[in-house]
Design a protein that fits this description.
This protein is an all-alpha fold. Helix content is about 55%, strand content about 5%. The chain has a two-stranded parallel sheet with strand order 1-2. Helix 5 crosses helix 6 and helix 5 crosses helix 7. The N terminus and C terminus are likely disordered.
């Protein structure tokens, strides 16, 4: 795995292992990532150039924008998406993902006369909300999932298991103590993250 995706807090492999169990293995490409191997036999795996990386960064930052904590772009979400798609997605999923990125820019140009990266925050949100509704309306039944589902999935996995996500968006506990089933909660408190809870036995 490339160095930018390593973390002293938790590795992406541990994170995806945990999420794969919770989601019954439904994360696209998770089986190859967990093995630490690349998917073999792909016929075409074009590189993600700077323009696509910037587009994925801005899409991720629209899904998880900066507030009082950094957004997805600060966690290099575009590079994480590119690595996952190139290494772990089969040809059909890879093609659907890249075609989806092209659709995002095409819709932005049709509506606003420029690409997604140049759109304002409200314009970006409206575009992605349209794709989100479209994705929710699709019932795949084994077919390739909607590209926006893959975009959201990678954004959430990449962000909440990055160093920024674990230590700033969540409250990180490096060495958890005893279980307390009655911890006081105040509205707006961040969820807890501990390495012990994220690591499978």
């Amino acid at each position: 795995m490339n160095a930018p995706f390593q973390s002293s807090l938790v590795t992406r492999r541990e994170a995806i292992a945990r999420l794969s169990v919770l989601l019954a293995g439904s994360i696209v490409g998770a089986e190859f990532f967990l093995r630490g191997t690349r998917l073999e036999g792909k016929e075409n795996s074009p590189e993600f150039g700077p323009d696509l990386l910037a587009l994925m960064d801005e899409i991720g930052d629209t899904i998880i924008p900066p507030t009082n904590t950094p957004g997805a772009k600060a966690a290099n979400i575009g590079a994480f998406m590119a690595m996952m798609v190139a290494d772990c997605y089969d040809d059909a999923h890879h093609a659907a993902f890249r075609d989806g990125l092209a659709r995002v820019d095409r819709v932005a140009n049709e509506r606003h006369g420029h690409g997604f990266v140049a759109c304002t925050a409200p314009e970006r949100t409206a575009i992605l909300e349209g794709f989100d509704h479209e994705a929710r309306a699709r019932v795949p039944h084994g077919a390739t999932p909607h590209f926006f589902r893959m975009l959201k999935e990678l954004t959430l996995i990449g962000y909440f298991n990055s160093e920024i996500g674990c230590s700033q968006a969540l409250r990180y506990v490096e060495v958890p103590g005893s279980f307390d089933g009655n911890v006081p909660y105040h509205k707006g408190d961040r969820a807890w993250f501990s390495r012990a809870r994220a690591t499978l036995s």
